[in-house]
Amino acid sequence: MDDYDIMVKSQRKWMLIFLAILVIGLGIIPYKQILFGLLLGSSISTFNIWFLQNRVKKFGKAITGGKSVVSLGTFTRMLTSVLAIAIALRFENTFHVYATIIGLVSSYLIMMVDSFIRSIIDVNRI
């Protein structure tokens, strides 16, 4: 496995752990609307990061093969984020809108934390 695959696997693992914590929190914590919003946003965010990682992998293979790639799916990822906000706005009694927005950002926060931890580990190895 190359470094990119290891990074992708680690980020997916942390996103799934975060989603599992949110699902467990639904059974324990009384703030259902906020947790449903976080779960909706984080689920869409997990899809977006999975989609981006697959597109980057295809992009890298195409570039090394001398082919061209149309896009990295920015429009699709934006559309799914807008869809999540639209769902949260339509069902305001179930989903907290601000929590949904925070959930949409969760994968990027996890990517930054994972990269930070990896850089600390790499510096300590040297």
Radius of gyration: 17 Å
Largest sheet composition: none
User: How many H/I helices?
Assistant: 4
Number of strands: 0
Helix/strand class: mainly alpha
Question: Could you state the order of secondary-structure elements as H and E?
Answer: HHHH
Classify the helix fraction into a percent range. Answer: over 70%
Characterize the overall form: flat
Q: Beta-strand level of the residues, as a percent range?
A: under 5%
Distance N to C terminus: 21 Å
The average pLDDT value, as a whole number, equals 91
Low-confidence stretches: none
- How many distinct folded domains? 1
Structure write-up:
The protein is mainly alpha-helical. The protein has one domain. Helices cover 83% and strands 0% of the residues. The protein has helices spanning 3-28, 32-64, 74-90, 97-125. The longest helix has 33 residues, at 32-64. It is flat. The mean pLDDT is 91.
What is this structure's SSE topology?
Blueprint lengths: L2 H26 L3 H33 L9 H17 L6 H29 L1
Short account of what is shown:
The protein has helices spanning 3-28, 32-64, 74-90, 97-125. It has 126 residues and is mainly α.
